[in-house]
């Protein structure tokens, strides 16, 4: 399908200058002004506007889409679609939704201007429950699983696990090679037997208990039996639990408290509107349940006239 290559016809600079009603580009019945383009670009997040529209291909695509939309809209008006009562009613409610969204954003900005200093509250929260800001101990391990598969008995699995354990202790730097060669854990192809945070609740209690007994990085456990078979576990990393200082958590605390304040004030404002007295006849509300059982009611022509 043929289309105009706008960037070859109009320099990008034309969008950066001129009054709001100056014409940027024309195609068929469609004319776009700076005000039209501004309206579309305003929908983009502010931080992304310059970057997005600075890309020639994005700019061309945007203008082409706008020209197509305007030509179709011109045809719709020529065919009287803008006078259709259902269309007018829909646009009326779309205006309500857009105004509601704009007011909601305005309320958020107004609340942001009233946010108190959260430093003192953050310190108070920290001091009230310092334990909540402590890091837990984290133990990352690597393991070899010897299961009972292909007719291997439990005794045979244990004997093989003890043999591999002896090899691992004799050459701990070869542990990954032993994983690749012997482990029955299918995930070894992706992680070479690695298991991060191996004492977390997701792990089998017996397995996690054996991990906790490893005193220092590099220690290798005796074969440990779980429902999956026998594990030989090597401690790869140990991060001790510690209490984080207030300075370490302050910024995150302040951010969380600020966001909570904004959400609560916004909710209070909306709840105040929701709690305004509702006036309605029960019979009228009840009739809505059957109003849409059959054919959709026609939009009234007077909906074009706003009170």
UniProtKB/TrEMBL annotation:
<protein>
    <recommendedName>
        <fullName>peptidylprolyl isomerase</fullName>
        <ecNumber>5.2.1.8</ecNumber>
    </recommendedName>
</protein>
<feature type="region of interest" description="Disordered">
    <location>
        <begin position="181"/>
        <end position="201"/>
    </location>
</feature>
<comment type="similarity">
    <text>Belongs to the PpiC/parvulin rotamase family.</text>
</comment>
<dbReference type="InterPro" id="IPR000297">
    <property type="entry name" value="PPIase_PpiC"/>
</dbReference>
<feature type="signal peptide">
    <location>
        <begin position="1"/>
        <end position="16"/>
    </location>
</feature>
<dbReference type="InterPro" id="IPR046357">
    <property type="entry name" value="PPIase_dom_sf"/>
</dbReference>
<keyword id="KW-0697">Rotamase</keyword>
<feature type="region of interest" description="Disordered">
    <location>
        <begin position="278"/>
        <end position="307"/>
    </location>
</feature>
<keyword id="KW-0732">Signal</keyword>
<keyword id="KW-0413">Isomerase</keyword>
<feature type="domain" description="PpiC">
    <location>
        <begin position="136"/>
        <end position="237"/>
    </location>
</feature>
<dbReference type="InterPro" id="IPR050245">
    <property type="entry name" value="PrsA_foldase"/>
</dbReference>
<dbReference type="Pfam" id="PF00639">
    <property type="entry name" value="Rotamase"/>
</dbReference>
<dbReference type="GO" id="GO:0016853">
    <property type="term" value="F:isomerase activity"/>
</dbReference>
């Amino acid at each position: 399908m043929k289309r105009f290559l706008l960037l070859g016809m109009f320099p990008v600079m034309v969008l950066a200058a001129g009054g709001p009603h100056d014409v940027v580009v024309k195609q068929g019945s469609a004319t776009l002004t700076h005000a039209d383009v501004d309206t579309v670009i305003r929908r983009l997040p502010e931080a992304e506007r310059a970057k997005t529209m600075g890309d020639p291909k994005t700019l061309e695509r945007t203008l082409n889409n706008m020209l197509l939309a305007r030509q179709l809209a011109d045809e719709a008006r020529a065919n009287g679609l803008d006078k259709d009562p259902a269309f007018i009613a829909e646009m009326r409610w779309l205006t309500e939704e857009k105004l509601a969204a704009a007011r909601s954003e305005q309320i958020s900005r107004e609340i942001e201007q009233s946010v108190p200093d959260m430093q003192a509250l953050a310190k108070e929260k920290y001091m009230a429950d310092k334990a909540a800001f402590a890091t837990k101990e984290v133990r990352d391990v690597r393991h070899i699983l010897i299961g009972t598969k292909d007719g291997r008995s439990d005794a045979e699995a244990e004997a093989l696990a003890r043999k591999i354990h002896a090899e691992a202790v004799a050459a701990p730097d070869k542990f990954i090679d032993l994983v690749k060669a012997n482990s029955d854990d299918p995930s070894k192809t992706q992680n070479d037997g690695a298991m991060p945070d191996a004492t977390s609740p997701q792990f089998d209690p017996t397995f996690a208990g054996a991990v906790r007994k490893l005193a220092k990085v590099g220690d290798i456990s005796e074969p440990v039996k779980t429902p999956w078979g026998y594990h030989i576990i090597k401690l790869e990393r140990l991060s001790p639990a510690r209490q984080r200082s207030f300075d370490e958590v302050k910024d995150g605390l302040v951010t969380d408290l600020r966001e909570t304040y904004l959400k609560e004030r916004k909710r209070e404002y909306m709840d105040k509107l929701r709690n305004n007295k509702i006036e309605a006849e029960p019979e009228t509300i009840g009739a809505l349940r059957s109003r849409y059982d059959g054919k959709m009611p026609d939009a009234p022509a007077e909906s074009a006239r706003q009170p």
